[in-house]
Every structure is written in C-alpha cells, then in structure tokens.
C-alpha cells in the first residue's frame, strides 16, 4: 500500500471543523445547537449581490481573468482609495477567498524551511497553509491578561533567525478580537524595515472595529511599499462567506507578479460570485454602519454575560467578531466535545472552538475557547445561558485561580 | 528590499495566459481573435444550472461543508455509480475545481522532493502545482509520430527512482487528445502495484470520447483501491469553467482524510455554484450526447483542415477537445506572439498556445502548438483559414521535413 506524504500526516485538522461529526450527531438527536464555533455571520448578504446574480445574462459560465474581472479590480481600487489606500491596477489580484490570498502570500514570500513569525492565538488555518507551503510558523504568544495585545517588540526580535522572512498579523484579530493600533504597528514597521522582512497583514475584519479609532492598514504605513502585503476578503464585510472571493494587494511588484503566476495555475476565481461582489460594492455606508453597530451590541452582550460567570475571564474585545475567553475547565477539547455529546439545556447546547487549535505552541489554550458572536442577540443570550449552565454541570470544572486582566 | 521566494521565481507563468496582454492589444486595435488558446467551450451551460442559481432562496450566502454540500456529494456518487464507479460517501471531496483536486492529490501523496512521472506534453498547470507543492515532475515524452500514445512501460521503469511516489496521467489527454485504453492502463496498473505507487488520473474530459470504446477510469481498475486517485471537474462536462467546482475521489482512506484536512484549511468550495452544479446533474443524457457529437464534428473539421495544410501534422485525436499539432515554423512562442502582434487576415487572427509550455523537458515543442477546438464550426473554419494564411505569411516558416505519423 502506497504511503501518503508526511505533510499530509502533519497537516492539522481544523479545530473549528473537527467537532462537526459530534454536532451532526447531536442534531440527529434533536438538540438545537448555537453555533459560536465558526465565523459564519447571520447578517443578510447585500440585496445588490442577489440582484446581480439573478440578473446575470450570460449563457456560458466562463473562466474569468486569472487576476479576477478587470471591472471588479477597478471598483476595489476605488473602494480602497476611498479608505485612504491608493493602489495601482497591477497591485491587486482577486483570489478564491482570503484563504487563497494567504497561501499566495506565504508562497510568494517564503521558501520551504523559511520562518514566519505570527502572534498566537492565531487563525488556526495559518498553520494549515504553512504546512501546505512547507514553511515554519514561529509563534509569539500573546496573553489574555493583556487583552491579547502584541508583546513588546523585543519579544519579536528574540524570535528572529536567519530563516525569518516575514511577520504575519491578523488585524483586527481572529481569534482574539484584539486590534493593533498605529503605535503597535509602528514598532513592527521599524523592525521589518531594519531586517528586510515582509509584513503580511490579514485585514479581512477591518470594518469590524468598535474603538472609534482607525484600524490602520499596512498599506497605509510609510516606507513599507516593498514590505507590506495585505490580505482581504468579502466573506465577513458583506456576509458572503460562501462566495469565496478575496484579494491580495501589495505595492511590491515582484510579489504581485508571483501572485499572478499562482493565480494563472488555478485559472480563475469563481466567475458568477465576482459579478455579485462587484454589485455589492454599491452597498451604502449605512449597510456597514448597521452591521458594525449590531456587532458592537453583540460584543457588549457577550462581554457582560461572560464576565458575570464565575471563573470566566473575558478580555477587552476591540474588533472582529471573536473572543478568546478563559473558562474554569480542565481541557477545552474535552469540554467542547462534551457540550455536543453529553450536555443539553432545554434541548439546546452550544458549539465552541477549543483554543488549543489556535496556538502553535503545544499545550497552550487548554482553558480557553474561541467564541464567534455571529448570532442575533436573542440567540446569543440563550447561548450564554446554555454555556453558564454547562459550566456548572461540567464534570471537569476546575477551581484553579483564573488569570487577571491587567488593563480592562 | 525583501526578496521573494525562489519558488515564486521558479513558478512558471501559464503558457496559455502569458499571451493575454498581446491579445488585449490586438483587440484594442480592432482585430477579431479566434480563441483556440484556452479550453473555454462555447457550449451553453445547462438550463438546470441557471434555474437553480436564480431560484436560490437563502438570504445569507454561507460557507458550505468543507467536503462540499452533502446533497451534491450524494448525487455525484449516484452519477459515478451509473457509469460503473461505485464509491462510498467518504470517498469524495468537492474541490474548488479540478485545479484544487490536483493540488490536494499531489500534496496528499508526495512530500517535498518526491517525484511524479507525467507523460508529456502535459497539462501545463501540473508544472505550476508541482512547483507550489515542491515536488518534481519527471516527464516521459510521448511523440506526435505515435499520436502521443503512452510509450512502452519500460520507459516508465527507466524513470523510476527511490523518490518516485506517483504516476499522473490525464485521460483523455489535455493537451494531445490522446485516449489511453484499457490495455495501456493495464501496464500502468501492474507497475504501480509492483512499486506501490499512486496512480493519479485527471479524468475531467472522460465524456469527450470519440472512439466508441470506453475510456476506463482508474477507479474501475481491479486491485488499485489504495493506489488510484481520480480528479474530476464539471468545467468541461457542463460547460461551467467559471463555476470552479471539481472533485477528488479515492478509495484510499488516508488520501481522503488528508484531502479533507486540506479542504478544511480553505473552509469551503463556492456555495452557490454547488447548488447550480447539483441541479445540472439532472441534465439529460441527450445534453452530453449533443455536446459530444458537436465536438466530434469539430474534431473532424480541424483534422481535415489541418492535414490539408502543407507542412502541418495533425495526429489522431480520440478525446478531449485539444490537438497538439506540428507546424512548419521556427519557434512556436514567437509564432503565437506574431499572430497577435503582426498578423491579421480580413481583420481576424488566431490565438494559439505554444506547446513549449506543455513540455517539462526544456527545448521540446518548439514546432508544436496546442489547439483547443472550442468554437462553433463556422468560427473554427474561419480560424483554420486564418491559420493557413498565417503560415504562408510567417517570416519564420521552415521547410524542414515534418514528422511522419506511424499509425493514423
């Protein structure tokens, strides 16, 4: 029997999706599940999207340009320009969602064996893309006590090696909800300039910012024309997760030439969805404003509900729609599976993502889970009630002292 | 300035798409271009597809299951079963087109540095996916004199090394139109069993078979349960190139577990398109029959037109909708660019793909082009007229003796 590859063996299963079979079994038993395990918003996709899809008149669904439809790219450049990011026409490639943009960025910037420094907890699929690209993720741990802010720049310096080629940040952060402001990014800017590193920023949650302060893009930072690579997506911004449309943007011509070659190999991103996304760009500012306000209220709701639970620590959440929270439990993986297999409250339970999968450092996150607050407030309230009951009933509850927030 | 990766530098630009800027310039000058350079059929996508898309009633375009919608997978299993391929429910993963299926197959079966033997001329993007996956393509040259059939199995044996992990075939073949029958596959079957190799078959053109004989799937071959991996796509079968929906199928559980992990990392294939594809499966057999008959007539047309041109060699074409043909020219890359930059006949020209990009062996294919006969017969006839005129006018025409077909 032929052996599969070592990289296939090492490839991590998604910590978000590996609980799916247990959820399916719970549903089959008739249990209602509140899905806080995945960033699938319940917000309606823009009416403009559906209208464009239904009005699409071609008889043949053809390939698009490998870099994406020219009209979509032009409109995205306008979208960025209105937000203070001026790019040229060769500085954007439409990708099959943010996932592909991250993969293209890693492959363009790093060779097999090279290292990318990533603050953890991190978006779990970075580990998967790194495995596929045969690059090493060097984690730099952020802590709940400090609201998962970036650690002092000396911590980054300590992790530099001759193989370090890039720093990758998700801002605002999935899975922590932390938002890195201009001051924190400034230190990274100086470091990448000094050491000639790429600064790859996953900014797919940029609109989800509850601070009132601007969340700067790496493409707005002076002097980083050759260093900054930005990953974007419409999945969250327009509640179009299933469209699989994202963008890779950089002013580094070599990076973009490489991205186009990777794009050519897979021929094109989905055609029909690009048409819908292009139309969605006409959604008024009020669409985003309403979405952000709704998520702000949801954030407020879960923050206060979680903080009222004994032994639970909820840090400050400034952006995105996730929280990584500490629970008084022995093992997050066991707890999340137990929620699906052995618990229900009034016929309902909660699906959460164990935080262990969001740390590259083995052993971290055992008392943490990621909560995606992507349900309406009524459902969120009931989900919080479920979680509170579950924590009381869970056999693996611990009484060890919880971490203390330093800033909040 | 940070350096991009060596793999990005080595990544081949698509030979099919790198001429696009010259085509755009020709169009801007008002020249009509017959696109024989890319496998973009002009056949209408099924009415069932458009109906399902327009009738899609969800308000939120959500992620699908990472392995694809369960209902689509079930219907595909039924589709395969009706064609003599019986698979279980965990033996299929929906991919973002055949491109992703090939990439998943390579990553699941081969580690960086491992070798895959591929008959050339080959589908050019295999070289790109191999570069992304850091695996080596070991080409085995097939020849126009023998209608690009597989060479004797000894040729394969000669290329085996301790790093050989797989043989990859495209059957029917893009770019040659060759179809490998049961006898040729049988020798490969024995070899992969003997040496415990994977046999990866790209069968996206299976319906495009003009021989009257069946084109066997590797999944129908006895004893290859652990060895056979099949790549499929709806792009050509349903004229849905822009949908980006494909499939990876195998009875090897480890391969499929690996494929699912790769699939989880990128979350899901496009949601809306899966709904359309599922509906397309209800297209009647007459849809395929009509499509195949149309392509058979197109094949007949280009074969006779090409064979009437002096110095042109058109081999036997049994399947798919491509021909790799010999032209009396000095350099296919120069010729294909010249067609776009410096030639027109009655305001028209032809876009072809130079065959050099379809050979992994440097220097081969300089007098060959790939023709995709994806236009209606009237357009094809005019395109052939253009090509004939172009060959007469081309300054780099050679009078060297052409290869002679042994079988046709």
* Topology, number of strands of chain A: 12
Oligomer: homodimer
How do the strands of the widest beta sheet of chain A line up side by side?
Answer: 2-8-7-6-5-3-4
3D shape of chain A:
globular
Contiguous uncertain segments of 5+ residues of chain A: none
Classify the beta-strand content of chain A into a percent band: 5-15%
CATH superfamily heading of the largest domain in chain A: Type I PLP-dependent aspartate aminotransferase-like (Major domain)
Strand and helix order of chain A: HHEHHEHEHEHEHEEEHHHEHEEEH
**Which CATH architecture of the largest domain in chain A?**
3-Layer(aba) Sandwich
Count helical runs of chain A: 13
- Tell me the CATH topology of the largest domain in chain A: Aspartate Aminotransferase, domain 2
Question: In the CATH hierarchy, what is the class of the largest domain in chain A?
Answer: Alpha Beta
Domain count of chain A, please report it: 2
Mean pLDDT of chain A: 95
Q: What is the straight-line distance between the termini of chain A?
A: 57 Å
Radius of gyration of chain A: 21 Å
Keywords:
homodimer, 408 residues, alpha/beta, Aspartate Aminotransferase, domain 1, Aspartate Aminotransferase, domain 2, 7-stranded mixed sheet, 13 helices
Would you write up a description of this structure?
Two copies of one chain form a homodimer. With 408 residues, the first copy, chain A, is an alpha/beta fold. Chain A has two domains: 6-44 and 286-393, Aspartate Aminotransferase, domain 1, CATH 3.90.1150; 47-280, Type I PLP-dependent aspartate aminotransferase-like (Major domain) (Aspartate Aminotransferase, domain 2, 3-Layer(aba) Sandwich), CATH 3.40.640. Helices cover 37% and strands 14% of the residues of chain A. Chain A has 13 helices and twelve strands. Chain A has helices at residues 6-10, 20-28, 47-55, 70-82, 97-109, 125-133, 153-158, 182-195, 253-265, 271-280, 285-307, 332-341, 377-393; strands at residues 32-35, 92-95, 115-120, 136-141, 164-170, 198-202, 228-233, 246-250, 322-326, 348-351, 353-354, 368-372. A seven-stranded mixed β-sheet of chain A has the order 2-8-7-6-5-3-4, sandwiched between helices. In chain A, helix 6 (125-133) links the parallel strand 3 and strand 4. The longest helix of chain A has 23 residues, at 285-307. The first copy, chain A, is globular and about 55 Å long. The termini of chain A are far apart. The relative contact order of chain A is 0.18. At the A-B interface, helix 1, helix 3, helix 5, helix 6 and helix 9 of A face helix 1, helix 3, helix 5, helix 6 and helix 9 of B.
């Amino acid at each position: 029997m032929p052996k599969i590859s070592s990289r296939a063996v090492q490839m991590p299963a998604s910590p978000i999706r590996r609980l799916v079979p247990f959820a399916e079994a719970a549903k089959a038993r008739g249990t209602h599940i509140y899905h806080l395990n995945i960033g699938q918003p319940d917000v309606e996709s823009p009416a403009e999207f559906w209208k464009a899809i239904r009005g699409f008149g071609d008889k043949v669904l053809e390939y698009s340009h490998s870099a994406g439809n020219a009209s979509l790219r032009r409109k995205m450049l306008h979208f960025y320009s209105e937000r203070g990011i001026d790019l040229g026409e060769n500085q954007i490639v439409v990708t099959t969602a943010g996932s592909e943009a991250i993969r293209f960025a890693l492959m363009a910037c790093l060779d097999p064996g090279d290292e990318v420094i990533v603050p953890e907890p991190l978006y779990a699929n970075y580990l998967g893309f790194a495995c596929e690209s045969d690059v090493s993720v060097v984690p730099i741990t952020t802590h709940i006590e400090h609201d998962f802010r970036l650690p002092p720049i000396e911590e980054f310096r300590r992790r530099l090696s001759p193989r370090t080629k890039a720093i990758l940040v998700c801002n605002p952060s999935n899975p922590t909800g932390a938002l890195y402001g201009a001051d924190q990014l400034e230190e990274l800017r100086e470091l990448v300039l000094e050491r000639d590193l790429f600064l790859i920023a996953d900014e797919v949650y940029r609109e989800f910012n509850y601070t009132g302060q601007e969340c700067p893009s790496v493409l707005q930072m002076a002097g980083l024309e050759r260093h900054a690579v930005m990953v974007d997506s419409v999945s969250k911004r327009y509640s179009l997760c299933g469209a699989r449309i994202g963008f890779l943007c950089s002013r580094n011509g070599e990076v973009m030439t490489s991205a186009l070659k990777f794009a050519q190999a897979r021929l094109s991103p989905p055609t029909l969805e690009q048409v819908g996304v292009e139309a969605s760009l006409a959604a008024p500012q009020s669409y985003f404003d309403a979405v952000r306000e709704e998520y702000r209220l949801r954030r407020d709701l879960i923050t206060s509900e979680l903080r009222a639970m004994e032994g639970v620590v909820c840090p400050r959440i400034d952006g995105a729609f996730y929280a990584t929270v500490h629970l008084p439990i022995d093992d997050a993986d066991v707890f999340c599976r137990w929620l699906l297999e052995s618990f229900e409250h009034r016929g309902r339970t909660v699906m959460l993502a164990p935080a262990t999968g969001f740390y590259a450092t083995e052993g971290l996150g055992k008392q943490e889970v990621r909560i995606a607050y992507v349900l309406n407030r009524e459902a969120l309230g009931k989900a919080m009630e479920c979680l509170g009951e579950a924590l009381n009933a869970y056999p693996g509850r611990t009484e060890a002292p919880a971490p203390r927030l330093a800033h909040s």
